[in-house]
Amino acid sequence: MTLPLIVDAHEDLAYNILNFGRDYTRSAVETRRIESESGSEAPLYTDNALLGWPDYLRGGVAVVFGTLFATPIRRREGEWDKQSYADFSQAHRLYRLQLDTYHKLTDEHPDKFRLVSSQADLEGVLAYWAQGGEEDSSSTAEKPVGIVPLMEGAEAILSPSELPEWWEQGLRIIGPAWAGTRFCGGTREPGPLTGEGRELLEAMADIDFTLDLSHMDWLSARQALDMYPGPLIASHANAAALLPGYDGNRLLPDDVIRGIIARQGIIGVIPFCKFLDNDWEKGDRRDGITLETLAAHIDHICQMAGDALHAGLGSDFDGGFGLESAPAGVESIADLQKLAPILMAKGYNNEEIAAVLGENWLRHLKINLPK
Ligand SMILES: [Zn+2]
To answer: Are 323 and 269 a contacting pair, CB within 8 Å?
Structure first.
């Protein structure tokens, strides 16, 4: 039996490569061992690793969206964060370096990673995975993982006139916010779409960029739903309604979820303990939080849609969190396959499970990547 393919719509791979020297050709367990032996500070700041090519292979992870992400310096948590910027030109340099990092990774390891910026790139990767994911972890079959570049926080874009250049370099998805930006309100920094934000979105639509609503303040997300004519998604976000007492703006309110569904968009749910249980804090044990809770977010989206075509995965693993902050039972990304029996117990059939784990994102890419 083969596993359904997983597509993960949010991983900060370039950030981790540049900031902590992580090598994603290795397994997560290998990275954890090396970081432990070398006294690396990475696990302290971003938790232990959950990602690596052998884990992708074992878990049937065929495609990931690889982010370009740097921290605005006012939100930097310490000197260790070298991927932080004080002004827009610095942001531009860092984000370009991260995009170059994906080009370098895929040039150096074409057997393990391929850049996916077109239909042909995607077909090329999927041909290797045509038999589905691996059931047998001892398999040595070489299957490259596709990486679709996604920009998280758009302050690196100095002017909308730069967009064709970013597109040329392979960027396909843009989220204008992380914290608030000059384009719109963002996480913990509420606000509307600004004039510059509207200009950016208009220019993005002209080129057919996919808009990522994750991290946009609710007001700006609602405005973007009204005005953005192009494809839109939320690469990594859970449902605010399922966290009693939640009063932030990072998770999605139901009307925004409905808006994304109505626009044929997809929402990637995040297996992050804090976004599954409002009372959980970094450093708490993860035993009480399970993939069942994550499945409830998937089900919430599917119930609203009336089908299983709009929920997907956006793990954010090795982003702001890793092993210590993922639900119990998740030792690497391969364990996201454990969602399949949980969804089956909720009444989802094999086709619906495959849709949620990967096929929905693949459909989005098949429609929206250029020929
Ligand atoms: Zn994020």
So the answer is: no
DSSP code, position 73: G
In eight-state DSSP terms, residue 301 is: H
Q: How far is CA 233 from CA 64, 179, 252, 266, 301, in A?
A: 15, 18, 12, 5, 13
The rounded Å distance from CA 55 to ligand 1 centre is: 22
- 218 neighbors 226 (Cβ within 8 angstroms): no
Could you tell me the distance, in angstroms and rounded to a whole number, from the CA of residue 69 to the centre of ligand 1? 9
> Which residues make beta-bridge pairs with 262?
none
Distance 174 CA to ligand 1 centre (A): 12
What pTM was estimated for this model as a whole?
0.97
Q: CA-CA distance, 83 to 76, in Å (whole number)?
A: 9
The Å distance, Cα 227 to ligand 1 centre, comes to: 23
Q: List pLDDT tens digits, range 246-302.
A: 999 999 999 999 999 999 999 999 999 999 999 999 889 998 899 999 999 999 999
Ligand 1 centroid from CA 315, angstroms: 10
Helix and strand numbers, DSSP H then E, in the chain: 14, 11
Cα 235 to ligand 1 centroid, rounded to whole Å: 9
Cα 127 to ligand 1 centroid, rounded to whole Å: 30
